[in-house]
């Protein structure tokens, strides 16, 4: 219990620190959440994480979003792994109308808190970008309490990143390039993301260190030729990930590139904490 309280406090510390940063440093990232699909209707503009949309009076009521950046919308509070629905639009000055009002209860962005296209990584404890996260913009020779606990990953910016199964950049490695580019108004956001480690080509909960650059010949997605995806997985186009992916019984992920479709998640729950390296 003591450890849990400690994690909660460090979560709050990180968030308030980001509030300061967000206003000190001009940035392009935003998400405007509308409760109707009327473009002239009222909206709330988010610049930062919101673990509980009741705080903005927007719990279960988002119908349309306009945004710059990668934003995740979770159907449970605190980005919880109990979320049964996840939306992850990636846009630069783009909008998205949802057919039905979303059951979104928390939201956060991925990528650098400082500048939109800065090189950055987010490592999540849950699959599908759920749960607590370890994030940073520099090499990490260990992931501290996230050691052997990472289940999904996002990178942003123009640099590739290499993920290692050993401490201090040893062991098995996979390099991930920011192969997707979202653009608008002459602004580009480079990014890539995998909702499970198996899709990246490493076992779940195996990452122990992270380095900037591509430090291995084992480059995603070509490494997929050797990867065991298991018989419940259908991966249509390994490079673009445009097609539907089915992952076992508990998860359905459609359109992994746009990250825009509903995801049904597994069960484990843990919430709250964020650590920046
Ligand atoms: C984009 O950049 C080009 C060349 O710099 C410029 O001509 C054009 O007006 C810009 N477009 C926008 C929407 O800013
Ligand atoms: C979210 O996490 C915070 C901090 O850990 C906790 O105090 C709060 O009760 C959680 N909210 C919900 C709705 O679970």
UniProtKB/TrEMBL annotation:
<dbReference type="InterPro" id="IPR018357">
    <property type="entry name" value="Hexapep_transf_CS"/>
</dbReference>
<dbReference type="GO" id="GO:0016740">
    <property type="term" value="F:transferase activity"/>
</dbReference>
<feature type="signal peptide">
    <location>
        <begin position="1"/>
        <end position="22"/>
    </location>
</feature>
<keyword id="KW-0732">Signal</keyword>
<dbReference type="InterPro" id="IPR011024">
    <property type="entry name" value="G_crystallin-like"/>
</dbReference>
<protein>
    <submittedName>
        <fullName>Uncharacterized protein LOC108667785</fullName>
    </submittedName>
</protein>
